[in-house]
Amino acid sequence: MSSKLLSLALVLLAVPEGASLVLRSANPAVVEKKTDLEQVCHPNLEFEISCPVISKMGDESTSLRQKWWLPGTGLIAGAVGMTQKATTQSGAEAKIASNSLLYSMSGSNKLRERFQNKHIVILGDSISQYMYMNLAYNLLHKEPPHFDFTWWKMEEQFKDQSLRIFPRTAENYSKPLSFKQMYTIWEQTSNTQLSTDEAQEVCDCWYENQENMVQNRYLKVGNSAITFLPWHNQNTKFRFHWTPNEGYPIKTECEISDCKPPFKHEIEGDPQGEGLLNVLDEFVMNLQPKPTHILMNKGLWGHMEEPKLRKLFEAGRKMHDIHGTRFIWQTQTQRGYNLGESEEFHRKYPEVPAMNAETDQEIILKEATLAKKYGWEVFDLWEHSKGLEVTRLDDMHYNEHAKTYFNSMLVKQFF
């Protein structure tokens, strides 16, 4: 790995979990801006919590964010007298450096060689979606991303394209962008980064609200393919503007961010989990190239009840016996619990149970044990994300260097 890439990968600031992002400082300038900085918040991808400021292009809130946020980490930086937790930081650095596989492959065809004739289909929440983007970028560009795919960062990192998507005038220049506008910018800028003259990602994408959205993504590079389908909870609706029986190349007949109803195919979620099983049987297993790996993740939106989990694992075992596809259960990452305890969160998402680290760990261990009993393999992100709290951007999501580390572990174990 080059020294430049290594130093980029290990740019981490240590902030104690649960602490204010605006750290105490002897610098009067920092103290003066404290209130303003605390207003610059970002709702995360799935949990659309109200935020005083999402983005004011060109106004003081944006300039403050650019000045005080450390690029690539989402942590407040630049303050004189800021206390760093050196032990925590060095531990995270050492863990990421322990497997820098994707960094070491940078500039070569080694990842593509591992992915020859492979097709991984990823079903899960935003943790899985960001891992899809990171891995897809690595496969397409032969190097890890030099920016962060986190949705609220894309507008800042790709200003020119953002301004083309939503032009700003003198009248609306300081008006905050809406959540939907920010989401649209994220869809389109991320798709641009996952497209080259060699291969172009197909994004069957549209967002109205959490219950009405489409986020199906497909990338084929040579004889390798990566697919992402969203799966949050038992009520997730699987909606498609293209199905495998239509043949290839994939044509959604809709523009990115405008893939709204009517849908060509729709599979309703249901309390018994049959919708998910139908998606696997009717859609996923008919994709071409034939899926060689199916990676599934469930946890941040609540864990599956054991009877439904057994039904899923049994279905996976049968499909493996028929098709030879490797089914992999991805455990939930380590997380914070501040957001899940908020009144607004429970008001908006009453179906998501309150959790804590002890309960999560107990359930995650049972899930992994049960998955192995049914012949599934386990990708243990709960274990891999231990000690990486300083790389979290919020309660749940990690910066791009951590995501590259997670995918390095994934590639090492399964490819």
Q: Explain this structure to me?
A:
The protein has 415 residues and is α/β, with parallel strands linked by helices. It has one domain. A seven-stranded mixed beta sheet has the order 4-5-6-3-9-10-11, with helices on both faces. Strands 1-2 form a two-stranded antiparallel sheet. A two-stranded antiparallel ribbon has the order 7-8. Strand 5 and strand 6 form a beta hairpin. The two termini are 20 Å apart.
SSE blueprint and pairings:
Layout: H1 3-9, H2 28-39, H3 60-68, E1 69-70, E2 75-76, H4 86-98, H5 101-104, H6 110-114, E3 119-124, H7 126-141, H8 151-157, H9 159-165, H10 179-193, E4 202-209, E5 212-221, E6 224-230, E7 238-240, E8 265-267, H11 274-283, E9 293-297, H12 306-323, E10 326-330, H13 343-348, H14 357-373, E11 377-379, H15 381-384, H16 400-414
Parallel strand pairs: 3-6, 3-9, 9-10, 10-11
Antiparallel strand pairs: 1-2, 4-5, 5-6, 7-8
